[in-house]
């Protein structure tokens, strides 16, 4: 297990810049999510750490070792792919044992460690099956076992859960987290699913256009985004129109010029809540969804979203005037985008 | 109701499949049946009224060792050409499918299938010009090398093999290429990520995963080469007597169609036997 340091890495594909002076540290034993829209460079960063691409400039260290010119097969990493990429011509046990056989650990040792890995991912009885005879979730586990059985220094996951359906995905998230804790391996995880990133990781890095926008623990990034992009990309944000700023209590952060409120921080009422920030709007829609409900409120032509327990939202006819209130401390302040 | 639908479906099925079956009947089944009939005759009916049924043509294959010897020679030729085609074609397909990308791949691919577009007879005569004593190849080598070489490849077994390899190489390249380019890049990346080098990937993944394509190519080469007659005749000269040329002689020179037909069916049986015997081994290799 090792920490991974990426320092000032730049990578071009042809004339387009995929990574632009990226520096980031992945702590030893941590679970780190790289989050960003498609084309943000998150997969390129992962594949550069893996060694499928060499950076044009900058350095990558895994533990104490400089690896930016070391090819993949010599980096001692484990990687999981979006479509699992199991070897279709081999049994499950042979898939998992492949990396051990390459390392020539010996037949007895290989058998012992394959059995151990199968046990870890709870597939002890399926060693002789072929990948084509497994379900999606089982393939997933085989891919994970194959990636960690060689005890790599770092585990890289490229959107590993995106091919699973919703319930299976939540199960696998918990499973992935359990195994990662048990093995204690430094894990870097690429995803475009923000919820997945928030639940799984202990640190998040948001990328945009090949640059790191913000790095931090999930709660910090969610509550104190550094700019408008981070605020809108991770979670939803209702942006306060400049014409409505007067009279509100807003945080004074240097350079802050745009303000937003998360949908779950808002409350809806026919009167402003005392001691809180409040703005008036027009009720547009009330969407019931069981325990929770979503309201859309028209504020000067743009819709604010409110998410609350359904019983906390008063029954107000669409078109009626309503007040949206929130604690001053819940206001998100970011610099106005240039 | 269901029955009516079923008969309606069946009628439609028959209507849609009948052109294909009609074509198979006309193009394959009828000629083969005629040939099978000819092979058990003493003489062709149109040559005279005194023909009768006989197994003499088949018996001749067993009594006269020259036919079995020639068949064995043809099988060896088929094996040699197939092995050489695999040794040259598979690496070509490998480079084409896994290394070269974009425009260059299209161009190279075109060059591979270009021989298909030229007449095979023209191709063989071109080889004759290249291979003969004092031919293009010999002149070229002598111009480059400081010492004199005398190749005189024309009318040797080598010339026959060269001509056949050139004719049938594209089959191996095409089938192997299709199998190789269907392999998911992520599988190769996954193998590299857990430490596999190029040779391991080739031996444990690329080769087993593309084996069905490679074998299909090998069969496509082996079967026609065993029965080939044009290349052996033109490039082999006196050395070019093979099972295929003997069959051809029966039809065009000796005019003994019944014997030619019988020899053809023996060839067909032997090739089918070889494919049946090897298929369990091949299927095992695929797993």
TrEMBL record, chain A:
Q: Name one Pfam family in it.
A: ABC_tran
- Identify the residues that the record assigns to the ABC transporter domain, covering every copy: 4-234
Question: So which domain of life are we looking at?
Answer: Bacteria
GO biological process entries: putrescine transport
- One GO MF term attached to the UniProt entry: transmembrane transporter activity
SUPFAM superfamilies, per this entry?
MOP-like, P-loop containing nucleoside triphosphate hydrolases
Q: Which GO terms describe its cellular component?
A: ATP-binding cassette (ABC) transporter complex
Record flagged with keyword Heme:
no
Nucleotide-binding as a keyword?
yes
Which key words are in the record?
ATP-binding, Nucleotide-binding, Transport
Q: Which PROSITE patterns match?
A: ABC_TRANSPORTER_1, ABC_TRANSPORTER_2
Name by which UniProt lists this protein: Putative spermidine/putrescine transport system ATP-binding protein
- Organism name: Paracoccus tibetensis
Automatic annotation (TrEMBL), chain B:
Transmembrane as a keyword?
yes
Q: Which organism is it from?
A: Paracoccus tibetensis
Gene3D superfamilies reported for this sequence: MetI-like
- Lineage, highest ranks first: Bacteria, Pseudomonadati, Pseudomonadota, Alphaproteobacteria, Rhodobacterales
Name-wise, this protein is: Spermidine/putrescine transport system permease protein
Entry GO CC: plasma membrane
Q: Which InterPro entries match?
A: MetI-like, MetI-like_sf
Q: Which residues cross the membrane?
A: 20-44, 75-96, 108-131, 151-180, 201-223, 259-282
The membrane topology noted for this protein in its Swiss-Prot or TrEMBL record is: Multi-pass membrane protein
| Primary location | membrane
